[in-house]
Design goal:
Length: 376
């Protein structure tokens, strides 16, 4: 056997090798298009946009700007053609809608598992982030997987050998109430997104996420895209159920159950929307730093709604001052004008100005968040 010279220089193993060994093989299957959401249920506004890292000049395979999606699968193309010929056009559309619901659950489960295996576990093992930080960013994502596996199992059991499904209403009425557990996951997203954005300033985190983004398994989706999938799915349920109901005959026993299911999910989405809004308002209130006692307003403590917030810019889109931001809590509370502290003092604190600037009042007036007394 030929031995290597003892004085030969050996390059240290790169992070790529470690990462490749940690990330299990995952099918490069696409993420199903969730379409338009029912409503802007969770108010992430501008910061909710996917933060796709800019391609580095030295990167071999810079990630293209476009995002790969899963190819849509149709019920009529998946199962027996002979069965399709026996059904009416309306019934085929009903089967397609039911199949879309089932296929969406399968895609969701696959993506949630991928988020854990390809992002959470490697970052923990490589000590790229602490366990506490990962728990904050990923929240209760693990607990959502069994919920959707249960629905998928029931939908598959209800499917006949020929691929058609007769009734889904009773299944949905029994399963949908468990989605109330989404409130903790969605309420955590404000803090999770803020922490993830902050951690991206760490070179190791940025490097890991960029390598994942350039890998086939990610389908060019950023980590936050995967973490936001449960919310996107949640607000799409009413649309999916209405589509099934629209193609269900009036004399079908499933119609009454579907109407009940729609009422259930609308109530759940509304409740989670409210709790998430309160969580976002609380997040910003906790980060307000008052330079003077006189700045404090008791109404801010009791506020539960954040009406608007964002960076203060002129009509050309340029920040009026560095990193300056504005916030508006409750209609009864005077507008809050703050500037984030520098990282050397407090990276998460927001210093409150004594008086709002004129540009700030004009901005809030345009947004409809300003009451007449706020101008005084």
């Amino acid at each position: 056997m030929i031995e290597e010279p003892s004085n030969k220089r050996v390059k240290p193993l790169s992070r790529v090798t470690s990462l490749a060994n940690l990330i299990p093989p995952v099918k490069a299957t696409p993420l199903k298009r969730f379409g338009q959401t029912l409503q802007r249920s969770i108010s992430f506004r501008s910061e909710s946009r996917p933060d796709i890292l800019a391609p580095r000049p030295w990167s071999r395979n810079a990630a293209p700007s476009s995002t790969k999606r899963r190819d849509s699968k149709l019920w009529s193309e998946t199962f027996d053609v002979c069965v399709n010929q026996m059904l009416t056009s309306k019934e085929i559309k009903r089967q397609e809608a039911i199949f879309e619901l089932s296929q969406g659950e399968e895609d969701l489960i696959e993506d949630l598992k991928l988020a854990k295996k390809a992002y959470h576990d490697p970052m923990l093992k490589l000590s790229i982030m602490t366990e506490q930080e990962l728990n904050q960013i990923f929240g209760t994502l693990d607990s959502l997987i069994p919920l959707h596996e249960e629905l998928l199992s029931q939908l598959r059991d209800a499917r006949k050998p020929d691929g058609s499904t007769e009734h889904v209403g009773p299944i949905l009425v029994g399963w949908l109430p468990c989605l109330s557990s989404y409130d903790s996951y969605c309420s955590n997203q404000v803090a999770a997104k803020a922490l993830l954005d902050h951690k991206k300033q760490d070179h190791r985190v940025q490097d890991f996420l960029q390598r994942c983004l350039e890998s086939p398994f990610s389908r060019k989706l950023d980590l936050w895209n995967f973490l936001d999938i449960p919310r996107s799915r949640l607000v799409k349920y009413p649309l999916l159920l209405r589509e099934i109901l629209r193609h269900t005959p009036n004399d079908n026993p499933d119609q009454q159950h579907l109407e009940e299911a729609i009422n259930i999910i609308q109530g759940i989405v509304a409740e989670i929307n409210t709790k998430t809004g309160e969580s976002e308002c609380r997040y910003y209130k906790e980060r307000l730093l008052y330079l003077e006692e006189g700045q404090k307003d008791s109404l801010i403590d009791s506020s539960r709604v954040l009406c608007c917030h964002g960076e203060l810019k002129n009509n050309r889109g340029v920040l009026k001052t560095s990193s300056e931001s504005v916030s508006r809590m409750d209609p009864k509370v005077r507008p809050t004008h703050y500037k984030p502290m520098t990282p050397s003092t407090n990276s998460s604190g927001l210093t409150v100005f004594v008086k709002p600037k004129k540009q700030f009042c004009v901005l809030l007036g345009r947004l409809g968040c300003l009451t007449p007394r706020d101008h005084s």
